[in-house]
Amino acid sequence: MLLDAGRGIMTTESADKRLIEWSAKMLDLVDMKFTVTGRENIDPSKSYLLMSNHASHFDIPVLYQAYRRPLRMVAKKELYRIPFFGPAMRAAGFPEVDRGNRAKAVESLRQGSSLIESGVSLWIAPEGTRSRDGTLQPYKKGGFVLALESSLVILPLGLAGTRDVLAPSTLTLHRGVHVHAHFGAPIVPSAEGYSVPARDALMATVRASMVESIAYAQAQRGA
Question: What is the value of pTM for the model shown?
Answer without folding.
Answer: 0.87
